[in-house]
Structures are given as C-alpha cells and as structure tokens.
Specification:
Elements lengths: L12 E7 L7 H12 L3 E7 L5 H11 L3 E4 L13 E2 L1 H6 L4 E5 L2 E5 L2 H10 L10 E4 L3 H13 L4 E5 L2 H10 L9 E5 L3 H4 L5 E4 L16 H4 L7 E4 L8 H8 L3 E4 H17 L5 H12 L1
Parallel strand pairs: 1-2, 1-3, 4-6, 7-8, 7-10, 8-9, 10-11, 11-12
Antiparallel strand pairs: 3-5, 5-6
Helix pairs in contact: 1-11, 4-5, 4-10, 10-11
C-alpha cells in the first residue's frame, strides 16, 4: 500500500493521543494514513503526558487549538472530571478514549464500544435472541458490556474468577444510564454457560505475550459452543491467538482485537473531521506495521 506523505504547513491542525507511556501506540500509524488518504490538513501526534501534568496539558491543548485527541492508560478515567461534557456511553463504561473541542470546551466519549460492534453489525444478525458471554470483568469487559447492550443482545453474562470483584462489577451497572440485562458468574460455572452463547468474548489478557499458547477455554469447552456462536478476542498479537485458533478449528466465525482497534479509531476520526474514514487504509497500515 502506497500512501501519499503528509505535508505539514502553517495551516495544519493538530490531533493526537495522550498516555504515559505512549511510544507503543499504533494510533499515529493508522490515523496519519487515513489523513493522507483523505487529503486533510491535519497531523496526528503522540503526546507523553505524566499523570501529574494532565490538567496542564489539557489547558495547553486548548491554548494551541488542538482539534481533538485519543486517550490511553493511565488517563482514561482521570480525565473525566476535566471535561465539560461526557457522553452517556463513556459514563456507563467509566472511561473516555476520545476527546474533541467544542464551543463549550472539551467533550469526551468512548468509541471502544462502537469499534467492538462494527464488525458484528456487518453480519446482519438478529442479536435479540443471542446471549453474549464475556470472559473477564476488568476495564475491557466494561466496554464490551456496553457494546453488547447497544447491539441488542438478549442478555450479557460476565464470567470472572473473584466473586467479590464480580459483585462489584454488577453493582457498578445498577445506576448506569444503559441498564444492560447483565448477570455475573464465577469461572466454575463456565461449562453451563457456554452452550447458551451466541457471542463469546475473551476480555482477559490470557493469550498475550509471552504466554501466547494459553487460552481462556480448553478445547473441550470450545466444543460446547453452538455452531453459530461468534468468537471474539480483544487481543490482536499474536494473530490469531490460541483462543481464535480453537474457535476456527471448531468452525466458528472469529474476530480479533485488531478490528476493534481500527474501528474505534475510525469512529474517533469521524468525530474530529466529520468525514467518513477510509477503514481499509487504516487496517492495512496497521497490518503492514505489526505483521
């Protein structure tokens, strides 16, 4: 893929991503590829912002006219009180990953849910009779819960190791504006739940480097899933993960976290530019860089 190089001029507007550290972020790769393809007068840069400098950085961004930015660890929660407006979905997830400037000040949302469901929507399935089974109950699982609610899944089953953490997870959704049909279950009940799933999501770190041969499910448990179940792993390195290798061997349709990364980025770029992003270009830029 040949992408026209960006030309930075006196009129070029700034976009970016903040985090600490942020040098690992692949967002500049896909966003600058998209910006070049669209022929926009923007550039997308990484900004390493230490936690104690967050307020100073946000004020500085407003001063220099930054158009918008993405947010990664450790700022996704701590930035929320600094924003003028936070979307309903970001409030429900408890984290912001996309911010833009408006006449009222900085506004924030979370595009992870939109990124997660984008490839699922393309399947044109009726999700109203398809329970979603989410493996894990950390921060990533929160975005998936919101996404499954938006998708219209009949109910959302969250599985975790700690009963106390699961109880806290469930309680945190009781006052949510989304009100998903949510239930939580300990890991020992997994074999009972798998035959119900229309969608199974790995929202745990199991399968990441260095333990790339690990999977949250055994081969026997994978065989318990109905043939129409979609298997989705939020991990994208390695590609495919052991979890998705098992799912493919069982004949299931699979998606990985690379698509979520691309789609959440595309949703953010559309907010900033009001243009339809070149998703294929963004995906290919990442594939060429990562693989």
């Amino acid at each position: 893929m040949v992408i026209k190089p960006l030309t930075v001029k006196g009129t070029t507007q700034l976009l970016g991503v903040i985090g600490y550290p942020v040098k690992h972020s692949m967002s500049p790769i896909m966003h600058n590829a998209a910006i070049a393809t669209l022929g926009l007068d923007y550039v997308y840069l990484p900004f390493p912002i230490a936690p104690d400098q967050l307020k100073t950085a946000i004020d500085g961004f407003a001063a220099v006219g930054l158009k918008g930015f993405n947010i990664t660890i450790p700022h996704k929660q701590t930035i929320m009180p600094l924003l003028t407006d936070v979307s309903e979905v970001a409030q429900a997830i408890g984290a912001v990953n996309t911010v833009w400037w408006s006449d009222q000040g900085w506004c924030g949302t979370n595009t992870d849910a939109a990124g997660f469901i984008a490839p699922l929507k393309a399947l044109s399935r009726d999700w109203s009779h398809a329970p979603a089974l989410i493996l894990g109950n950390g921060g990533a699982a929160r975005a998936v819960v919101a996404a499954c609610h938006q998708l219209g899944c009949s109910n959302v089953l969250v599985v975790g190791r700690s009963a106390d953490k699961l109880a806290a997870f469930a309680q945190s959704w009781e006052m949510s504006p989304l009100q998903p049909n949510l239930s939580v279950h300990t890991w020992d009940r997994l074999d009972e739940l798998l035959p119900m799933a229309g969608l199974v999501v790995n929202a745990t770190p199991i399968g990441m480097a260095p333990k790339i041969e690990a999977s949250p499910l055994t081969d026997g448990q994978m065989a318990l899933l109905p043939s129409q179940t979609i298997a989705y792993d939020l991990i994208y390195v390695p590609r495919p993960t052991r979890f998705l290798q098992q799912a493919s061997a069982a004949g299931l349709v699979t998606f990985d976290g690379l698509e979520m990364l691309v789609q959440q980025g595309a949703a953010a770029l559309e907010i900033w530019t009001q243009q339809s992003p070149p998703v294929d270009v963004m995906r290919q830029a990442l594939l060429e860089h990562v693989f």
